[in-house]
């Protein structure tokens, strides 16, 4: 399995920022209230990222040769897949919330803290989730074998 590419995350972020901005603009043009995400969303995203790193620690110990017990390959597969999906979801949620914040801050009237702070917390939670997911994915990288000359960087725990 290939690591998550930066171009994938950047393209998801660009689309999500534009979508968040356009969604709030469309709501405001219809004189509907703008979208305000809840603050627990950002905290939950950050918690998921931290839990993902904790889940990847046994795999990291196994890769480094310091594990007391062998890690189940199915567990390693699930962690790598969860890390890959979480990096994309963290980028999506964080960038969507960033689009909402940008729309609020570009208005001529200064928005209240109650409308921008929850969205800003969601941006932070998305960033934490993305960074933790990428770190967890990198923690699951297996070093290359001596006879494997194709990829000098190694591969993930799942081939």
Report on the biggest sheet.
2 strands, antiparallel
Low-confidence stretches: none
Shape, per Cα inertia axes: elongated
Q: Specify the number of helices.
A: 4
Largest sheet, order of strands side by side? 1-2
Secondary-structure topology with pairs:
Layout: H1 6-29, H2 39-64, H3 73-105, H4 113-139, E1 141-142, E2 155-156
Antiparallel strand pairs: 1-2
Helix pairs in contact: 1-3, 2-3, 2-4, 3-4
Description:
The structure is a single chain. The chain is an all-alpha fold. The chain has 4 helices and 2 strands, in the order ααααββ. It has a two-stranded antiparallel sheet. α1 packs across α3 and α2 (39-64) runs parallel beside α4. It is elongated. The N and C termini lie close together (6 Å). The mean pLDDT is 89.
What does this entry show, briefly?
The chain is an all-alpha fold and 159 residues long.
Jot down its keywords.
159 residues
